[in-house]
Amino acid sequence: MSVTDQAFVTLASNDIYCQGALVLGQSLRNHGTSRKLAVLVTEQVSHGIRTVLSRVFDEVIEVSSLDSADLEHLALMRRPELGVTFTKLQCWTLTQYSKCVFMDADTLVLCNVDELFDRDELSAAPDSGWPDCFNSGVFVFRPSMETYAHLLQFAVEHGSFDGGDQGLLNGFFSDWATTDISKHLPFIYNLSISSLYTYSPAFRQFGTDSKVVHFLGSSKPWHCKYNPQTRTVTEGGSPSGHQHLIFTTLWWEIYTSSVLPLLTGLEEIADTEGQEKHRFGGVEVVMKRKNPSPANVQSQPPAQHANPDCLDNPTNKIQSTSSEAGNLEVSVCEPEPVPPSSATYVDIPASEPAPPSSPQSDCEAIFSPDSSLSEPASDTQTWPYSNPDPVPQKSLELGILAASVTELSIQAAEEIEPRTEEERRKWEEGQMDYMGKDAFENIKKRLDRFLQ
Ligand SMILES: O=c1ccn([C@@H]2O[C@H](COP(=O)(O)OP(=O)(O)O[C@H]3O[C@H](CO)[C@@H](O)[C@H](O)[C@H]3O)[C@@H](O)[C@H]2O)c(=O)[nH]1
Ligand SMILES: [Mn+2]
Region entry Disordered: which residue ranges (predicted)? Predict the structure, then answer.
């Protein structure tokens, strides 16, 4: 039964973060939430992406980082660094709902979490870095214009001790740590992926109960590259290592099966040397093909662990292998010498449709008890895994992916602004801006676009 006056709320201030919001929204839908889904967007989010968001979310609500209300103007004039933070605080203005659960766009639900609505404001899980503070990536709140005004006033008077919304909210709800234990959400509702290696025995013990994963920190799943044929992720350009490949791979599974098919208007802008760039709004999905012949692809052996021991973690490692039952085995082991390659790989078996289950019980369908978990001596966990509501494989994009794409990545689409009159005159006079607009790669981009 749907509950119309309660909602999960997220925020995306640009088209890249929208990719995260779409995966989050789709994961909530896949696990049969009975609550509404709302996404706050700012003016930078493109029209096309808003249309796609509206296919996953019940409400796409534009908020402004510089709202017209006097108090906000005043606050931002005095504390300009709080701009992004203020955007998140605007979730309190959603008074059409009696209660909401805010979730960062870099979170992912692993099962139905509607029971969060049994909690009251302000319920949140401890932050892994400083557990007397709560992490503001997942929290239960009651929309109220009065609370919103108090929050803004607090921001003007006290600021945020970390410069972001987390410091501000912890300052405002400062009795969270001591007053009411029911407002402490269990850590499994906001599992910071860094905990997989900072406290691996706890992850081994409790990890299979995880309900919400949070890709906290500078390295997000959309910074990785993904091979849809072997279902492996590779670190892409980011200096920090991804130790949480199981969840990053799951993120990409949802992205390719449920989000990419929604981006049906993907405009192809270039196809050079086996690399296609599909542009949609402010994002480009880059597809590389190494084996263009479908016959070639079909004859490939099953996914191999190209580099199973390559996690460059100083203390321990998590490696994943596929089991015969279609489950994902997770094993945590001691460090071994790091190979020279910076690439990291993980295998995920084919996802199987979950058995029919009521929304409230789908955690059990996904995290069924496994005997290997009860053996403390064993270093191996079975991670039952399924994507309960995959989009049919026959969709166009998936057909393309399955046939020949060996690497998918997401990047911000570059804006190529038109030339101004002044620039055109200089160009005609032979005064080129070789280091800027007239750099070779920009000219090549213009040509590619013109020639397509
Ligand atoms: O350019 C941006 C940056 C952030 N966000 C939104 O704001 C959230 C928080 O940013 P994120 O990059 O997820 O921050 P974290 O790495 O999670 O860092 C921590 O610090 C942030 C700032 O205090 C808090 O908002 C987070 O909840 C907390 O986990 C995102 O998920 C988005 O919903 C945007 O829409 N656009
Ligand atoms: Mn976050």
Answer: 291-394
